[in-house]
Amino acid sequence: MRITKFAIPEIIFGHGSLDHLAPCARRLGASRVLLVSDKGLESSGWVERVMDILSGNGLEWVYFADCSSNPRDHQVHQGAQIYLEERADVVIALGGGSPMDTAKGIGTIVGNGGRISDYEGANKIMRPLPPMIFLPTTAGSGSDISQFCIITDVARRLKMSIISRSLVPNVSIIDPQVLLTKSEELIVASAIDAFAHAVESYLSLLASPFTDHQALRAMELIMANLMPAVERRDPQALEQLSIASTAAGMSFSNAGLGIGHSLAHSLGGMFDVLHGLVHPVLLPHVMRYNLPVSVDRLAAIGRIVVGPRMASAESIARAGIERLGEFFAGLGVPVRLGQLLPDRSALETIARTAVHDACTLTNPRAVTWQDLLAICEEAW
Amino acid sequence: MRITKFAIPEIIFGHGSLDHLAPCARRLGASRVLLVSDKGLESSGWVERVMDILSGNGLEWVYFADCSSNPRDHQVHQGAQIYLEERADVVIALGGGSPMDTAKGIGTIVGNGGRISDYEGANKIMRPLPPMIFLPTTAGSGSDISQFCIITDVARRLKMSIISRSLVPNVSIIDPQVLLTKSEELIVASAIDAFAHAVESYLSLLASPFTDHQALRAMELIMANLMPAVERRDPQALEQLSIASTAAGMSFSNAGLGIGHSLAHSLGGMFDVLHGLVHPVLLPHVMRYNLPVSVDRLAAIGRIVVGPRMASAESIARAGIERLGEFFAGLGVPVRLGQLLPDRSALETIARTAVHDACTLTNPRAVTWQDLLAICEEAW
To answer: What ipTM was estimated for this complex?
Structure first.
């Protein structure tokens, strides 16, 4: 086995774990924190709740809410300026992938200076970030666990993948009760994002015994719990989706991803699509593309999706991919690329950009931009 | 689900991962490190290898080797004094549980002052320790992963369990090639220690979805790989034992242990027995004691030990316990307490001490010292 690295934040998980926020912040040296969240969360009441917890424990806070659903470079720089002007000492992010990635970007600039685009790619961050505590409100992005930060470069119209050990927060406080207030669309999009993290990291060139079983477990939990979570808002199913998202985060943060995410980043940089809604469209085609080099691993995924059967690895793998497409369709989300984009004119640009995304490096099968274009055409 | 915490160090795993030592140390601010190891490891050549790596990378080191196989309080204080006198800045431990626990004790005193007995129990360490990098040379103690530190109080003739989040090292560098130089007895004792960690943490009152699957995975890997590792020194089997020990460490560090370890600590404080050799004697009896409250969990363990079968949970659980006793006997280690101790005269003291060990708190079934004495008598 080659050398493998495995790093995750300290995790506090469970109903009511939000109560641990103030002691954690104080342990990390907080006296005045920058709280990063977004407008959508204000209406749910969680932002106020966090502010109350901080104030009630003698901690000052500065609030920054300028995070769009695909966070942008200028938002990161604005947040970093506020952090420095206000002399904050710890960053707390409350929300889904967008506020968390914005917080990571802010931490990067605060600790390292320069422009956020300076850190695009893997292992470009050389100096430490301020302490970070994340409070995820969706079960999907895995940003609360991962070494990944995805920021849109507005001028270039692309999503930059920034990957560094330094981007793992100090503590992730995961309170599944916040999921109860989520819309059906957000629960589905988040769970599918987590599922795609699990699949792509399991197929990744950097997959290891430390990540494999986290990935497989995430897939099992999502297949078993997504329907009850959506249909009945079953609290136990929502909790299991949180565990699945965390497991998928442990896997992809350390094993990396693949061309499904390269394409999703490229597409999301040009069109403001909810990230989790790109995977139902692309994932089955990406799996099919990787089949020639990953038969056994796709068969292991197939066994989770369709159940154990006696058949050749290839036929189980194919059956799994088919069934997954039907499963996504049954969730009522778009399953053709044509439903997400206005026309095919951007496809070549999407493919040419995606081939340079950092996630392409760990895809099990080599790709050219023409291969990526063919996948998009197949998914149209 | 109640609130659960999960914390592990950054892990670098694989053949040749020792090469990451110098960059890791530098990243943690090292210029002059305290290297903690023991005499036994000097003859294996690994101590010199680590010294060469440090010197070759411009790092100064001070060497401390006064760690006995059940490390003692005065050794910890002596090491802390050397750290401070020599103005060291990072602690590196190379070895099994003993040098690693000594290093944790040294770090505790350096960062917090006082006597090591001041920190006995859970969550008594209030100030941070110096940065620590651990290089485990046995696949068993899990000290490189865990929040536990076991130090013998010489005056009281007992092993203190010190448990704190602060005792998790910053980085654990696990290079399975160091296991190739181990004796058969040490491989067996270490693997059984890891197996006992997995079993007791899986039964623990603090077990969670984050620890359960690590525990089960550790048991599976040890059952499958211990024999080939011992009989043929099969490198792949040894690597799998390393992975198992790491998984068991992730589990018990976060879920805690039970009365098997309470008794092992108590017994090890009075008699200088190799820790891993206590479990084959006690574990089946401890499992049997816990059976009335943990039938389903002991059945899950039974399915790993004897393979899946159609039978009641209780009968699978019992079959697993029986088979485990035979498995230990087949390894050629002592399986009766009478083989480890001179006579029964110490049993009552052992039981009375063990009932106050921190590990007793997480045992699934309540115990009195009389219950513990009965377990010892049964195991005699």
So the answer is: 0.87
